Amino acid sequence: MISQLIEKIQKTKAPVCVGLDPMLSYIPEHITKKALNDHGETLEGAAEAVWQFNKEIIDHTYDLIPAVKPQIAMYEQFGIEGLSVYKRTVDYCRQKGLIVIGDVKRGDIGSTSAAYATGHLGHVQVGSRALSGLGADFMTVNPYFGTDGVKPFVDVCNQEDKGLFVLVKTSNPSSGEFQDKLIDGRPLYELVAEKVVEWGNASMDGDYSNVGAVVGATYPEMSRILRKLMPKTYFLVPGYGAQGGTAEDLKPCFNQDGLGAIVNSSRGIIAAYKQEKYAAFGAEHFGEASRQAVADMVADINRVL
């Protein structure tokens, strides 16, 4: 699967993914108003507004980007109706030729991990039929359970040609409370990185592994260390833009071949129309604002690379 992502990155010349993390506060009033008029002030109405918002952004950006990353919590907050829209969004993105990274941060052990992996990436056996559940191409995984927790995900990836991004050094300010703690004189994130390489060796797909790593843009010096520790591991990089990461901060995440990382932006893209820079588009043309924000992000990153 990572080879397919790399092919799309090279084709679009855009090492970026759009985070489809909708909040009702991001959605223009004309969309929310129509959805609630049609369905009432219900979870169904909220979910319909999310769907219409997502579709507009996808339609305006799919030809510029290789991938999207829907964050499942933004859908789960609306219950079953929200999960239905998550699935609808995943399917629509794949119809548009996009790679879908399900940002679900799952982690457990044994059959529970296997069930998570099956639900998000694989096929579940129902009688004589093998059926896809949520149908993403990649998913994010929490490594806290160690090999017992991650191996079932890797096994499903190998069966289905899918991929993972394992949390290694996240972009949030308090990540260091655990991730930077020294174990035998080394920060924990380095030890996790070495395990990611070990797990990834069982799932190579060309020059890179299907087992990637989440490495935040907000800690460039740590990114530089992790890039050396994980030369064949693809990085999913949050933290650009709204969280403070700059294009210059991203450079250590990439290899000399210009590959090795895909950079996420969520509200900086999907809520671009709310920024002063894109205000001229107006709420009615929020999809066009998102398209321009993608183009600007791609140019910014390629300028540094």
In short:
The chain is an alpha/beta fold. 47% of the residues lie in helices and 17% in strands.
- What is the CA-atom radius of gyration, in angstroms? 19 Å
> Which assembly state applies to the chains in this document?
single chain
Order of strands in the sheet with most strands: 1-2-3-6-7-12-13-14
Shape: globular
- How much of the sequence lies in strands comes to 15-25%
Taking pLDDT < 50 over at least 5 consecutive residues as the criterion, the unreliable ranges are: none
How would you state the average pLDDT, rounded? 96
Question: Which percent range fits the helix content?
Answer: 40-55%
Please specify the SSE layout and strand pairing.
Blueprint: H1 2-12, E1 16-18, H2 29-39, H3 43-61, E2 67-68, H4 73-76, H5 79-95, E3 99-106, H6 110-121, E4 123-126, E5 129-132, E6 138-141, H7 147-160, E7 163-169, H8 176-179, E8 182-183, E9 186-187, H9 188-200, E10 204-205, E11 208-209, E12 211-215, H10 220-229, E13 235-237, H11 247-250, E14 261-265, H12 267-270, H13 286-304
Parallel strand pairs: 1-2, 1-14, 2-3, 3-6, 6-7, 7-12, 12-13, 13-14
Antiparallel strand pairs: 4-5, 8-9, 10-11
Describe the structure.
This protein has 13 helices and 14 strands. It has a single domain, classed as TIM Barrel, CATH 3.20.20.70. The mean pLDDT is 96. Helices cover 47% and strands 17% of the residues. The longest helix has 19 residues. The protein starts with a helix and ends with a helix. Helix 2 crosses helix 3. With 305 residues, it is an alpha/beta fold. The radius of gyration is 19 Å and the shape is globular. The strands form 4 sheets. It has an 8-stranded parallel beta barrel, surrounded by 7 helices.
